[in-house]
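> @MW can you paste both from yesterday?
MW: sure, first one:
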Amino acid sequence: MPYTRRFVLAGLGGVTGLPLMLRLSPGLAAERSVGLSAATLRSLIADPLRARILGCSYRAQFPAEDHPGVLTGLIGSSLGLGDAGAAALNRDALLCVLDARVRAEFGAGDIVRADGWVLARTEARLCALCE
């Protein structure tokens, strides 16, 4: 079955897999203060295998962003979430914010071509986290 952009976007919106890890253990309190974690963002991906392929293409184009910490920071800042805002969001709210950002990026022309796909930059960065 060929994967289309619509399929991936529907998967991003309908992920039923891993819950967001907003309630971190006390040992991970330092990571929580930074905002969103890479694991939290990865849990939003419905098809990690396809995302990994797209992410490899994105990281090859933008080698300066080829680090989970950099990608997580860029995604968090593009979503406009501060430390408190990220911790207060549940999974559905985070998906709504992500969807709005992806639509805004497409409207503004902030797109990236990766492995034959046209993705919003935040969407491509999210795929790049699936290394």
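MW: second:
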Amino acid sequence: MTTILELSDHDIRRATDADVAAIQALFELDPAYFEMKNGAPPRPTEARQLMGLLPPDLTLDHKHLLVIDDARTGVLDIVDSYPDATTWFLGAIFLAPAARGHGLGKRLLDTLARTIRDTGGTALRLIVSVQNPRARRLYDRCGFRMISRLTQTSWNDSLHEVDMLERDVTASQAET
């Protein structure tokens, strides 16, 4: 499978090393997001770090780092088969500020839910900062439910509360 997501009005493909600079430039469009998430602006190596970020005991075969419109519109970081064989984990959905508020995030999440279901998966899980109510509203609209609240340590040792959410992607739930 060349890509795990397809939207007719956007080019979505796997990121390569050649995309690192474009992803970094995308991240630098919204330093406030990184301040909220990590207590610091994006590191100069933020995109490179994302390229290799993977849960323990998984190989890069499970990682799907996708760029939307050559990273001008957004980036998604997805790990399949984590934390279990039928659950996928959304590590990041980051849209350019100009792309937000137009329904693209919901379309991406709904398309991803269908892809997961079509490949035999049952759930999509993510974490969201409690400091990010806009993202939380998107996830609520897309059918995600609270699993737990956790304290997460950022790369710079700052602590942040996050909510772990999960969406059932089985046939009856995937068309929210």
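> thanks! Residues 104-118 form the longest helix (15 residues).
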